[in-house]
User: Fold this.
Amino acid sequence: MSESFRKIAPYYDILMKRINYSGWVRYLGEIFERFRIKPRKILDLACGTGVPTLLLARQGYEIIGLDNSEEMLKVAQKKAECRIPNSKFRIPKWVLGDMRDFKIPERVDVVISLFDSLNYLLEEEDLRKAYSSVFNVLEEGGYFIFDMNTNFGFSQYWSKGSEVREEDGLLSIWRNNYNRERKIARLELTLFVQSPSSPPLIKGDKGGLIYRRMDEVHEERGYPPKEIERLLKEAGFQEIHIFKHLQFQRSTRSTNRVMVVAKKDS
Ligand SMILES: C[S@@+](CC[C@H](N)C(=O)[O-])C[C@H]1O[C@@H](n2cnc3c(N)ncnc32)[C@H](O)[C@@H]1O
Assistant:
């Protein structure tokens, strides 16, 4: 089970508030249009707390969210239960599983994986396994659509030292570094979480907020687009496009994040 997201799961959505998930899901819609994809059943691989999963479910898609963190899935499930039903919303199915080797009850015609999830696979062999597992659950003619951080992006944004943030009363310290030789980016994340009140610490003190500290380490690996393409081909994918994220231009050496669209032949 995933250790990296165990403690931060309840706070993940606050920490990611600045991410324009709606824009990302809109871009997915543009990809569907461009490639004439009419998804019937989608798998959101490494769905986390289900932000993109639920946005797609609201559009009426039948969707399965899979993740290997029980804590992240718990948050996703809770959000789905609290959602005010609209006529289109279809409650997603949630599956606890490892993207390197997973099974789902039925095959799907689209697999998505967003927001660096595949970068969490630190060995080439693990990425190979994930691509093969996706290939096996896809129907003929199905698509695998995913983003990945690049080594260029890591060198630009993950080697800049530290940052302190405060969002909704949540204090966080982000310490990044990037090892160019190993192509591993490391984030040491420290959270200070408010507890509502505390007893007075000293005489005369009325009590007040206390902060609980949590630490987590996240590691991601960058894979050059050529390697991504080779591994996808080895897994059986035929038609492969590697775009700049949120665009339809081919990625270049100075692309921070790529969006990959890979097709399984009909
Ligand atoms: C950065 S989060 C992205 C979550 C979600 N896709 C999103 O867009 O918000 C990465 C997710 O990958 C999951 N993950 C990492 N390694 C995994 C693995 N081997 N199998 C399944 N999920 C994994 C983590 O638990 C986490 O939820």
About this structure: The mean pLDDT is 93. DSSP finds seven helices and eleven strands in the chain. The first helix runs from residue 12 to 15. The radius of gyration is 20 Å.
